């Protein structure tokens, strides 16, 4: 729990630095609403979260957040271009069935898109998979393959390749080491456990 | 729509009455009499009106802890507790409302009134027109959902309510809840609308029309002019039977009745007596309905629902919600085919597009439209979360 709190805190702090005060934010895969509540309280944002799960929606409602239960792409299609100042996709991108569509829609309804994900190319994840010959499972990826949702094990190299191929502009990025706290400056695809990007069209 | 004749989740008969924990106990309806003229949306004027209502809990010193419960088409003001110790069943939303329940009467002052145009104590077509001394019948004004809400607002004013902590309603009650927030934006802080719609679909209008035709084609209807207790009993029963089907679902009816036969009905007996349990159940629904509901009220209220269309009334749904200050929670139910999830989603999406605080949650159920009445810990937790949030909170970082 403590490690989780620390990781969550750094993650939120960085996103918090990127978010403009009083801006309009859409959080895709908002979970129980921790990030949105943090942004609401520290940045006074007007936020909306989207998630699929009823109990997580209940948790968000308990936090006083606006939240929508349903498919995130279908949700975004209900809004005009540039409706949100920022769309956030924090630890969601690896669970998307159709990342191209989701990211495309996010950059249509949002003027900026923040993406944060666990780097599958992190050396420990590589070694873990290589040595065990099984789906990566460690303190970062804690679930068995049969109990987790469909996952794209995306790496930093993969994601940056995607951005180049789709002509998406990376306006900011931060790589964090395996502790998800310390900045990583060298060969992030190998040495970073976590990556955060700010994208624009 | 509240189903007064049937318990949704329990098959067993209601247990012997006992002072239940979490019950508001014995309650007594009260009549609010408004003695000044009331102008309906269409310009017609009622010289005055009566609303029958019940309250549970206490109004606080700030007079802002009131929660209004809006009932559905065939519901009434009796939503919690019992009228007498030996009442077989409590109010229609007793599972939700009471001390310690999701709508906690230890904290909130709960008000539920029977709607204008109804027949369970409030002024409607069965009421006597003071100008003629006879029941209004078809000369009753064409009430709208907005009129129902305005009449309730007068009651709340009379009760001294300064602000509504929330308005809660399912189905037609959800429509009223939305209209409350639109018409009285500074008065309403939260809206919880379930299994509802911002505009009646063609299918919903079609069902209503079948019910009305059953009533109006019954010779007993007589142009709406019939003695108290008389009238189109067959037509009203048929209307109720048909409507009742739309409140359930294929799966829930199959679970409850399947193809089970009434005892004595044999496999090859091709008569048209009751043979299947589902037939017996529907006939019972129809029969018990005619003993408590008025056919003209049924016509008036279904017509009010048909005309309900917030987008058309205000230009667009976003424009309709523009004045709203209330925080909304809209709940859809997966098996509701009368006001399906999409129609509930559309409300939340329009509110969000209008820049309002709104949430949408969807509960997986197989009980159909009446799901909003179901006993569900998940639903209770959601309602409690929406009504009881205290701010600010300590951060909880669990994912």
TrEMBL record, chain A:
Listed InterPro entries: Methionine_synth_MetW, SAM-dependent_MTases_sf
Superkingdom, taxonomy of origin: Bacteria
Pfam families: MetW (PF07021)
This protein's name: Methionine biosynthesis protein MetW
The organism of origin for this protein: Horticoccus luteus
Highest classification ranks of the organism: Bacteria, Pseudomonadati, Verrucomicrobiota, Opitutia, Opitutales
TrEMBL record, chain B:
UniProt KW keywords: Acyltransferase, Amino-acid biosynthesis, Cytoplasm, Methionine biosynthesis, Transferase
Keyword Cytoplasm in record: yes
Keyword Protein biosynthesis: no
Pathway linked to the protein: Amino-acid biosynthesis; L-methionine biosynthesis via de novo pathway; O-acetyl-L-homoserine from L-homoserine: step 1/1
Record-annotated AB hydrolase-1 domain positions: 65-348
A biological process from GO: methionine biosynthetic process
Catalytic activity: L-homoserine + acetyl-CoA = O-acetyl-L-homoserine + CoA
Name assigned to this protein: Homoserine O-acetyltransferase
Species of origin: Horticoccus luteus
